[in-house]
Each structure stands twice: as structure tokens, then as C-alpha cells.
Write a structure and sequence with these properties.
The structure is a homooctamer. The radius of gyration of chain A is 19 Å and the shape is globular. Chain A contains nine helices and nine strands. In chain A, helix 2 crosses helix 3 and helix 4 packs parallel to helix 9. The first copy, chain A, is α/β, with parallel strands linked by helices. Chains in contact: A-B, A-C, A-D, A-E, B-E, B-F, B-H, C-D, C-E, C-G, D-F, D-G, E-H, F-G, F-H, G-H. The interface between C and G is medium-sized, with 35 and 29 residues.
Chain lengths: ~240, ~240, ~240, ~240, ~240, ~240, ~240, ~240
């Protein structure tokens, strides 16, 4: 079976889907649309749904044609618009078989308006896994009253996501205001000295507030996965 | 009031405008057009005008459609063309409710012609806040007589802005020629070894002339804000 | 009271201790010994103990003289040797008023032997806050059977810390093996291409395993703080 | 003959083809299509075929018009589609005068689907030189069972190529599983913290698994050349 | 006079002192002690005092032997201990001919205790030029109440210096709280992800708070020079 | 005359041309076309011709519309095609009032075909100043016989320019083969690990061959200017 | 057995030795001395010898006290001096149970004298595994005749290692001269623009000579391991 | 003769001296003392003197013991102190068989006092090759009158070396003031934002003054070699 067949390329139609990922890690493999044809997106979604018994299947950052192909093959997804790409086409995240609501709510804070797409992606992933997610935009530290006004929400949240570009200072400030786990997402928003997210990433890693941990630049999906791991400890019950 | 409403996204129509920023910091929040729809630009401008009693409201780096939408919603702005973007559309800065002229003049020097858009943006912001701003272009140190000819203007200026890409040497030279505060703006002009502004930024930070301070790459708006803070000390009277 | 007294330096004897940090964030301010005199270490520890009613006070990376001075001023600390510094003096972490054991156990995996000091610091902080911490050293991915043998421990852990230098691949592998929250700590071990931890940091941030989050280079203290936030959700009971 | 003729540019029609490269290094000069006109591609291919007696001539990363021009001038090539470029045009690798099959098989593993174009280019080069090449896609370490399932294939392979972006951890894991030479290719797939392949490159260089060696970012051609050098030691016989 | 005398090195005893710098720029040339022999320090100080009629002459970062030599040659300096260097020797800043007090007070905030040496150097320079300088240490954003408690002092200050290492977030927060000019100084304190001050430098440059400007890493002297330029606009009267 | 006229922008029609640059430095200011309108190009060329009595005026990297506008305003230029830009439009360098041939010949070697545009620009500038320039393409060190075959030309050349991307090794090899001054130009050709010219730049700076000096990435114009300075020492006579 | 025992640190005396590494990868785990106490070195060597039946055990970069402790515990090693460290103590590599000579010879070329320690370490590892290794020092490309004189040796070698700092150009030149596999080792020799090996690493990765592959900075051990994998294909017989 | 003798290390006593380098490149191989034992220094110097008929032999950056050993073996050198190293031992450059004076004078300008060691090394090399070299220290652009006063010397110089750390702006200014070839040397003086010479290197490469070329950080020897190549064109006669 594992003999070498020189010249063979494992056929793309047989993409090696990681069907046991949710059982192992709590979050199933998702289909990342960029770089895939509409047909490949549809096939991968269908394959994940067929190969697993339950739980969410996600198609992320899908352009309209990709979303349409996947929905034509497998109807019934929830579709959330995340942002427009450079050509003005909207990018969406689609969810099949979302989990029923369970315990654990996330508060997602963004420093600016341009951080919203990353925040929306994270929120959609959390909701697919049954967790509530509140997004509060535009609470950057240049006007400190905005984040100070979130004190009550911070006290209630089970996990906090901080999404910020530029210098990423919001992560340090928020981490000093709450005892909840804080997961920071550097974004590539801003220009020049922001170095496409590297400045924010380094700032969050070097934060003076102990207890913040960081995921990759613009990686809203990864931040949500980290949050789902944290919230799983709260148990299976309804959260609302 | 601050209850968690899972799934809620603070609606974009309610962008959390920082209405007290001018009172706190001397310069009001400005609307940065790139990445916003024409309608969002118009709405943000109108919201800032409505939410504050007086003082300038700025829309920066606006493409024609963004400028038109904002002007349709709220007529009466001064419009300054700053540059053309990659597609040949002009980018402008629009000012509503400019302050009356007051004390304090800025001299803005650029090393080359391609630094002019950053200089023009800084000048428009300074003028919106009632300060005179003279822009002198093309006085880079490759031909030292050009900046030496500015000695008289340097002596009269209350604050000096130096806008330069490539190696940014103009900042060191100017800082050695004047006792006025000098604010340097690295620009991403040039190519190759300029590393999109990083070379100029580092050079200005490591300047052998003590007393220069630096803002982010291409950040003409930020440099003007720093200058407004400096000039505020001169008092409220007319400057001309 | 807040009048400006020109020339005044807030006296060092009055170091502005953050006495409410544990109430706000779950983990109290710790005294970082490097760069402080033995007397300053002793004073800071005493000040934190006096200014708060309960909970751990930590002195981290203390050289023998610093540890001795703090213990002379305030006896009764638990002292854990962490590593030897370049001069052969041992560095220790000291704990006063450790919390009683409570729910929540951490598994700390290191890729190599030289990552142990960071792991030991993290373990000592977790134990000060009442959590169990098991350190398993030398399970780097060059010999995959070593980490595969930890499958059972990974299933039992409430949170996993992965401490690794070089390329940091252990974080990706472990994150794919467990549904527990995974906090990765890049270390500056290794030489040359490891770029003093930057290679490991970047690799962990770009991990192909969704759900891992990362703290700063060699920041075992910060990783433990993040873990304490996660474990707090499990409630106050004894864990053993 | 070598007199200086000022102003002369060695005419492009006479591109200085390296006609002895295969004799010297085992692999002939290949024509890299990007940046060449269709006519230049055709001319270079014809020139290499005419200037050498035997052995493969390759045209790499050719767009349809470049491939068509070369085939019109010199029919008889094998054409393998590698990927689509940003504009949706397919890029191909064309082979004239492939060698007869000989000893030595390569196993090419990719971490993700988006690494396939680099893997396919490497496979086509190996096959042009008479070596078998099996590509197994999507065995990234986030789901370790996928690469563990390749143990048998790894034992049979004469050389292993690992193609991976993001953090490149697959190279460390595979190198620990086989005694065959392992050549790693970092790819620019992924986004943000992957830094366009630099993160993967650094991670592979700093690998904790001794014995892996690395070629440049996205350099599938170079990896195949390194593999051909290794396989040449096995002698000239048929491999199948 | 300017003939070329091959082989001649302009003698070090004739160090080309910049005797007109204070007239040109408001701040005289200072003697930077590191790398100079005690005799060179003494000679440079004496030369600057002799070559100018009035105003401060400063010797910065002087080790005890350098300070002693300069004081032996030219008594009468004020000596301020700044920090201890790696060998435990104290570094000092010495001031001859300090100006009488004049208008303009600076508030210097540091994020941590280890930023104090940079803050003390800046304060000593400001005081040499007749300006009041209040240093408040340890108001980092991890405990936001500390900087919020400075609101009154911020309102009174004529210029604010923010000295911070790690992620440098204090600069963004303070700039949003005051309308005074804010000059930020990144420091090389911290370890690992702070990248010896580069993280803080980049974060301050990319700050979300418009109006902050930045000087080089650990450059307390440069920050003070920038502040002296700003304060000069307030006029010559006594400030207290 | 030098009074501050607030709001004034030195009119672009009056671009501050550096009319004495050739007298001071041997090479006149050139007009760099990118970013200028066709009208601005025409005006700048005309201004430089009018403002100086003799010597070359150059318009570099001109697109067809820019070249046409300048030629319409001022006929009589020599036009050399350099390369095609990303949109397929040819970029040219135009020369007005080229100097008569004089002593001094340059040999320009390129590592690959894609380095030719930079080489052609350098050649055109040298010829405008009366110097012979021979371009030999494709002598990269991967096939050492190609550069070894240039030994005779290297012995005759008065100055050598080495244009190379990728790792830039050709500069080290050539510098060890000749006693002529060698000026190296790193290019941004290549992809991935070439880091857009930074790898080549660093390699040339760290060259093991003493005596090579380096100009900026892709800066063929600067390299030619450096060569003109070197060749000027040979005197004014005809070189052919 | 795998139960969590909170607080337990897997005892250092039980360092998790990778006893099956040679069977899996062809090269056994080696003991890297830096950072280990003499006792730890001795224990690790003894453990590896006891835990495996045959084949080499290596102690690398051992200072005299470490070597002495290991030899006292387990006599019979071959000891090769590699270099002196910064304090003048010699660093050695010790080999127990070297393999009998077998087929396959390596040629190790260094660009300069200061690259010799890395070359010597690689040679000692190759000899421990039964392979011949010839080291030729000082054949850098600044004097091309030196490497050209190695043509005959290059033709005979089964694998070539190129050890070079500075710009690393030797790797490109050698790869163009031989059809043997070439493994390049960047070294941190040189200063300034060599960036402690990063310049050489990048240059080797971006080499214009297809077929070179690269290991980490100063990683002579890793290069030898890669070479052992390549040479293993030649079979088990004596090589001399 | 070139047979492989496995295990052979070309004996260090037979260091492969590049005896034809002066004939090929105009400047002979020099002995770089750091990292060599006193005996190796003496042997290398003697070998170069014996292996060549005439022309200078140089020993650079020699500590007292290295200089003494070389002088004991081969008396008669000129010895120039360059600087003191970190331990207070003076570093010298020694010259045997200096050339008689010939045409061509260099002017060496430094921005600050701490750039003098690099300038002195360059001057000593130039003088060994018979060229006059005038060093003018401390003409940095912070006080522009200092470099402006060199106008006459600049007009007389045949080649100009600019040695500068920090932001390296002196190179741009000087290049605009002279038509002589300008060779810039970035130095690692300064601290923090100077990034150990990288800031200066990048600034010089991106200079707005066309015609400057750059050598490696602190590479005074390389700059002198480049200058010797330039001056050779002036012919062999006495220069004074």
C-alpha cells in the first residue's frame, strides 16, 4: 500500500483531510479559501462534513464565487461577511453544523476600525463552537476613557481577545485591567513604522503586563481556537 | 448597560468617535479615509462636527468619491490636493471649521520633490489649527547651498519640520542650524536601500545633532500634531 | 499634593509598588532581581508583603546576595534554584505566602536540557499560586517517540506550556496532540541561526497548529501568569 | 578578440549560455521564464539543445505564451502544469530530452496544499534526470498521524525533500524519522508572521534535528538539483 | 592654511570643539565621556569653558576617574550620579556654569525602575539649562492607576518626556492624556523580545496617539535637548 | 526676500534645480522620471538645459509619455531603451548635450540577464559623460569560465562595475582578478532569499576581497557617477 | 506510570537520552558540552554508551574540565582539539567507539583560517563514522587560483563541505565546479557587515549555483551529519 | 600531488598565503592579527615577505604581544598605534617595505573622535603604498561650519574617505561638495539606534548624493585598498 509509485502525485481530489483534528484538539480543520478554486473549496467542505459525524465545518476568507460553490454543493451554512478585499469583493466566513450554545463568553476588543475584519473572523469561529462573542471596536489607548468604560464587560468575560495594529499598546493596558486570560492578535493595519504588523507583534511579546499571550499577525482564526481551548474548561452547559 | 450581549458587534454606524480628544490633547480626532467607504467618511465627519462645539474636523487622504460624499453631507470644507495615488486619482485633505489664525509659524523643509505630499498634509493640518506653514521643497544636502539659503527663514520659524526619505541627512544638518524645535518625518520615497523609509527613520533616530525628534514613516499628520502642541505655548493671538 | 516640585525625583525608597495588581489581574507584582541592589530587593519584597493582605510575593532571578538580603529582612520564603548564571552563581526564585493547593495542573514540556531554567521558573510561579506543575524535559521533535510518550499526560493536563529554543517546532507538534490551552515560550538557547530566540518566536507565531499562543523570549514568568489566568476558571478547590 | 569595443552590449541574441554546466555539475543550465519574452525563451531553449549533445533542457515557470513559443520553435517537450499565477494563467515546466530512468527515488513531502507548486517543480526536474519522485501533500505536523503514516515510504526513499512554509516544523520531524539525506525547502506560503518564507527558512536552519540541509525560499529547482547530486552516487542503472 | 600636509593627523589635543553650537542651536556641545581618557575629558571640558563666554558645559556618563580628572582641572561642577555601570562604578553627569532658573518645567515619566538612569540624565541636562524637571518613576501601563494619578501633573507640565523600554506603550497612553508636547525615549531595558530597545522604538514611532515624537534608544541627552528647544519659547523669566 | 509667507508652497514650476552640481561634483543633476508628470519631466529638462551652459542633461527611467513630452519640448536627445516595466511599457534614458569622448573606459559585468537594465542605465550615463562603456552580461560565478574569459578585458578597463543580484558573489571574484577600482551594484533580481537585493548588498559589503566599494540597490546611476569621478583623473583627451 | 505527579521535575540524572537516534537517522545523539557541568557531561556520555550496543558517542565543544571528567568516567576516547575559546581554554571533540573506515570521502574547504574550528569539528564527526575527511583551508575567492587548484580533489570527493564566513561566495563558486553534493556552512567569522554569520547564511541560500544546500551558522556538526547521510548510500566497505 | 589523504589538515604552518595578490589587485594580502597567536602572526608576516620580492607587508590590529613577536622575527617595521582595545591594550598596524612616495593624496574626514581608529588604519595603509593621507577629525554635520571649512582641502584631494557612525550624514554632504571619488566607511560607534553600524551603512547606501560608494562597517583597510586602486591611475611619480 505504501509502495513508492514514482511520478505519482497524491491526487488533489484526495486532499489529506485531518478528520480527527476536532477530537484531538477541540477545533476541527477549517478550509482556508485563498488559493483554492471554487470547486476545491466545495469539495473540501463536503469532505470534512462527510468524514466527521458532528461539529462545525468552516470555510474562511471566501470570495463570493468560492462561497457560492460551497453552498451549492452543501447548502445550509451561516454566512458572515468579514471585510472587502482589495478588489472590493466581500470576504466571508461560512459555518456548517454550528454547535449549540454552551458556557463561556469572549470579549473581543479592537484598537481601531480597521482591526474589525480580524475581530469578526474570531467572533464567527467562537460562535460556531457555541460560545458568545461580543466585539467592541475602537477602544485604542489614544483615548483611554474608551477602554476604561469596558471595565464591567472585562469583569464578566471568560476570555478576552485584543486585536490591535500600530504599536499594539491596547494589549498591555487590557491585560492590566482583568484577571481573565488575554489573547492578543497583532494586525497589519497602519502603515510605515507598523512594518505590516511586526511592530505590534513585537510590542505584544515584550509587553510589560504579565499574562498576555500572542498569536500570529492577523490570525483571528488562531486566536479563536486558543479561546475555544480556554473556554472548554467551563463545561458543556448553555451559556445564555 | 454594559451587559454582555453575545454576538453583538458595536454597529459601525456608531463608530466610537473620540469627541474629547481636542480638549485633552489639543488636536481633534481626524478621519483617515483609506479603507473607509464614501458613506462612512461622510458619516464620521458629520458625527465629529455634531459631537463637538468648535474646532477643526479633518478628512485626510480622501479620494475624490470620499471627498464628494463628505462634502455632499456637510458642505463648507477647504479642500487641499496632496498628491495623486497609484491610479492617478488625487488624494486630498479636507478641513471644516478651521481655527482663526493664531501665533506660531512652522517652516517645513523637504529633501526632494517626492516628499511634498507628506509636507502638504502637514501644512494643511497646521493651517486648520490657525498656524502659518511655509513649505520649501528640494533642499536636500546633496547641494548644501539650498539649505544654507534658508538660514534666515530658520531663524524666524517657531518650529521646523524636516521631511526626507533616502538617508534622511537633512534632519541632522537642519537641527545643527537652528534653535527651534525640529520634528523630523522619514518618508518612504526612494527605492532599494531606503527600505521603504526604515533607513531614513533609523538615520534620524541616530542623528549626531542633539535635539531632533522623529515621528513615524510618512506621518505628516502626526508631525503636524506634534508641532501644534509646541506652538500652543505661544498663546492665542493672531500670528500675522 | 500633585504640585510640581522641580528637581524632585520620586525617591527610590518609595518605589511605586503596584499593590492592587493581584486583585485586578490574578497575579501580584513580582520583584525582578537583576539590576537591583540586595537592599532594594529586600525593601521591595517587604513592601509588597506589607502592602497586601495575602497571596504570594515573588523574587525572581535572584543572585545569592540578593536572596540572602531579602531572606534576612523577611524570613520564611521557599527558595528554588533555577540555573547558574554566566559567573557560576546560582539564580533562584523565592516565594513568600504561597497559596494553598487548588484545582488546575500544568504540564511543562521542554525541547532540550538548556530550556530547563525557563521551565523551572514557570513551575515555581505556578506552585506559588497553588497549581501543580510537572516538568518533562528533553522531548524535542528530533526524536518524536519522546513527545508521543507524553500523550497520556497531555490528556490529563489543564494547561500545557511548551518551552523550546532553536526552531521551536515542539509547540506545533504538541498543539496538534491536545485540546488543552497551549502556551509556548521561545527560548534564547541554541546559537547562530537561532538568533537568540527570534527564530523560535517567529516559528511559534507562524505555527501551522491553530490554538497555540506565545509569550516573550525566555519569559517563563509571563507564561506562568497566563496559565494562572486560564486555571483560575477551574475554581478554588484543592487539586490533589 | 577581447578588445574593448566601447558602447557594445553583448547582444542578447547571444546570451552566454553555460553549455558545460551539466558536465561540470551534473545538472544543465535551465531557462527561467519569468522576465523573458516568448521569443527569448524559445531562443534560449533552442540554443541549449543545439549547444549540447544530450541530456535534459528545461524551461521553468513558463506562462502559456512562453511555453507555446518554445514548443513552436522546438517541439517534443513534456509539459507539466505547476500552478496558476496571480492572473490565473497556468505556469508550467517543460522538459526536452529527458534522461532514461535510472537508480534513485525521491520522496517529496509537503506540509500543506499551497506548497504543492514548489513540490511539483522539484518532481518534474527529478524526473527529467531519470529519477522517480513521489509527492505526498498535506502531511503537516499539526496532525502528526499523517507524517507518521509515511514511515514506510521514508525507509524506502533514497533522498527526501521537505517543502513547508509557516514555521517549517515538518523538516525537523522528518529528519528525525529517516537516515536518508533530507533537503528542506522553505516556502513563502502563509501570511503575516511567516514573513514570506523567512520564518520557515530560519526555523529549518536552526532545526534541532541534525542532518537537514536547506535551499532558498520557494527554490524547488535548487532542491531537485541538490537531490540529483545525491542520487548520482547510486549509479546509472534503471530504477524501476 | 588649508594646504594638504600628507600624513598629518589633526592633533587630538586640538579636538575641533564646536564652540558656537549653543548660539546656533540653544544647547552647547557636551563631552560624552565613554571612550575618552580622563585627561581628554578634562581637556575637552576646559576647552569648552574657555572657548565660550557663558552657559553650561556638561560631561556625561563619566566614570569616577574621568569625573575626578575634569574636576581637578576645572573645579566647581555640580555632579549627579546617574547609574552604576556593569562593573559597579557609578556614572555621573557633571555641570559647569548652569543657567539661572527660567520659565518652563518638564515632567519626566518612566515606565519602570530600570528606566531611571535615562530619566536622571535628561533631568540633569534640563536643570543645567535652567528648567525644572520632575521625575516620576514606575508608572507603566500594566497598572494604569499609576499614570492616571499623574493627570494633574500632566496638565501643569510645559513638556513631557516618556522614558520606557519593553513595548513602550506608556508613550501612547500619556500622549492621549495631555496637550503638552510629548517626547518619547525608548530604552534598552528588558530582555528577549524587547530587542535592546528596537521594539520600544518601533512601537513609539507607530503610536496610535498623534503628536508624540521620538528620540534614539537610551538618548536621554537628546530628549532633554529637544525639550530645551521647546521650552525656550516660553521666554527667559524664572520658572519658580 | 526670505520673509515667511505662511501658506506659501514654493511653486513646483520653480523646482529648485541644482544648477551648480556638475561644477561642484563632476556630474550634473539628472531628472528621475518616476513620480513626475510628463509636463514636469519636460519642464525640468528644459530648466536644467537653460540654467547651465554645457554638459549632459539626463532624464532617467522615463516611460514613453514622459520621454515624448521632454522630446517635444526639447528635441535632440539620444534615447536608450533600458527595460520594460511591469506593464510592458519600455523605460528609457534620454541624454541631451552628451560630452565628446574622453579618456577612460568602463567594463560593466553582470551576473545574469536580469541585471541588464541596471547595467544599461550605468552605460548610458558613462557615455553621456564621454566615457566608453562595455557591458558583458551573464558571467555569474556558477560557471566560472565565463568570468575567467574576461581576464584580458579586466586588464584593460580603467574602472569595473559589477552588477549582481542573488548572493552577489561576482563582486568578490572580480575584485580579486583586477587592480582597477571596482564598484559593485547589488540588484533586486532573484526572489525569496535574495530579500529584494538586501542579501546581495550585505554580501558585497562583507566581501572577502579588499578594495570593492558598493552603491545602493539597483542604483546604476549612482555607480556610473562614482565611475565618472574615478575616470576624471585620467584627463580630458579622447579615449578611442 | 504516566500519572501527573505535580511538582515533579524529571530528574536531570535521568536525562532523556535518545538511544534509538542512530538506528532511526544514521547518526547517534551527541553530547553538546557548553552549559553542562563536567559531571553532567560524564554521565551523558556514559549513559549513551551503556544504552546503545555499538557506534560512536561524541562529546562536542568540551572544555578541559568537561573532557577530563568524561574521560575519567569512561576512558578510551579519541580527542581532537578544535579551537581555543575566548578565555584561551582549548575546546575539543571526543569520540568513543568510532566506526571502522568505510566507503565515502569528504572534502572540506574553508574560505579563511578562522573557519577552521568549524571544519575540524565536521571532520572529526565524519571520521567517527568511518569516513575520510580532508580539510583544505584558506581557499577563499579573493584569490581564485587557490580554489581552482582543488579541481582534482573536487572530482574525487564524494561530498563537499564549504565552510565560509563574510559573504560566503566560496559556496557558489565550488558548487559550479563539481557534481558532488555540496553542503555549505555559514560561519560567524568576520565582523561588522557579516552580521555574525547572517550575511553568509543569506548569500548561500540565495546562491546562483543550483544544488548547494545549507546548514545553520557555525553548525559543523550538522553539516557532518548531512554528509554521513549522503555517504551512507555508497555502502559499507572500507574506503581506503 | 592532489590525491586525497583522508584526515589530513593542510598544516597551519603552511597557511596558504596569497602571494600574487599585489600583482593581481594592486594591494598585497595583509595579516589580520585578531584570532592569531603571536607565533602565527610572525610566521605569516615572514612568509609574505619571503614569498614576494617587493612591496608592503602589513600586520593589522596587532596587540602588543603580536606586534612584538612579528618584530622579533622580522625587524624593521613602521608601527602606528591605532586605538586601545576594550582591555586598554593598544592596537597597532605594522608596515614592512613601505613603497616610496608616489602621486595621489587622500583626504580622510571623520564625523567624530571615536571614528579616528578606523581613519588611522586607513591612513597607515595608504602611506604604506606611497600615498599621502591627511586625517581631519570631528567635522560632523551637527556643526556644518567644520566641514565647510574643508572646501579647499576637498578641492585638492585625489580621493576622499568619509568615516562616520551614527546616521552617517557626513558622506552625503561631502559627496555634494567635491568631484573627487568619495569612499564612505560606516562605523559602529554610537549606541542604541546606530545598530552597531547598520544605520550608518544603510544611510550611506541610500545617500541622496550620487557618486558615493561604501565599504563594510569599520573596514578602514578595505576603504584604503579601494583608494589605492583609484590613485594608481595617477601614475608612479612622487606626489610631494
Amino acid at each position: 500500500m505504501a509502495d513508492l509509485h514514482p511520478g505519482e502525485v497524491v491526487p488533489e481530489a484526495d486532499l489529506w483531510l485531518d478528520l480527527t483534528r476536532r477530537r484531538r484538539t477541540g477545533v476541527a480543520e477549517a478550509v482556508y479559501a485563498p488559493g483554492k478554486s471554487p470547486a476545491q473549496c466545495a469539495e473540501a467542505v463536503a469532505g470534512l462534513l462527510a468524514g466527521t459525524d458532528e461539529g462545525p465545518v468552516l470555510l474562511t476568507r471566501a470570495r463570493p464565487a468560492q462561497a457560492a460553490a460551497a453552498l451549492a454543493e452543501t447548502p445550509g451554512a451561516t454566512c458572515t461577511a468579514v471585510c472587502e478585499d482589495a478588489d472590493g469583493a466581500s470576504l466571508s466566513i461560512l459555518t456548517w453544523r454550528a454547535l449549540a450554545p454552551r458556557k463561556g463568553c469572549a470579549l473581543i476588543l479592537t484598537a481601531g476600525t480597521s482591526d474589525l475584519p480580524v475581530a469578526r473572523e474570531a467572533a464567527a469561529v467562537l460562535e460556531a463552537y457555541g460560545h458568545g462573542a461580543t466585539v467592541i471596536a475602537d477602544v485604542g489607548v489614544a483615548g483611554l476613557h474608551r477602554v476604561l468604560a469596558q471595565q464591567e464587560r472585562l469583569a464578566e468575560a471568560d476570555v478576552v481577545l485584543v486585536v490591535a495594529g500600530m504599536e499594539g499598546a491596547l494589549a498591555s493596558v487590557v491585560t492590566g485591567m482583568t484577571s481573565a486570560p488575554v489573547i492578543a492578535v497583532p494586525t497589519s493595519t497602519g502603515y510605515g513604522s507598523g512594518l505590516e504588523g511586526v511592530t505590534s507583534l513585537l510590542g505584544m511579546m515584550a509587553s510589560c503586563s504579565p499574562g498576555v499571550s500572542v498569536v500570529g499577525i492577523d490570525n483571528g482564526f488562531g486566536a479563536a481556537c486558543a479561546a475555544v481551548r480556554v473556554l472548554a474548561a467551563l463545561g458543556p452547559e448553555e451559556s445564555r
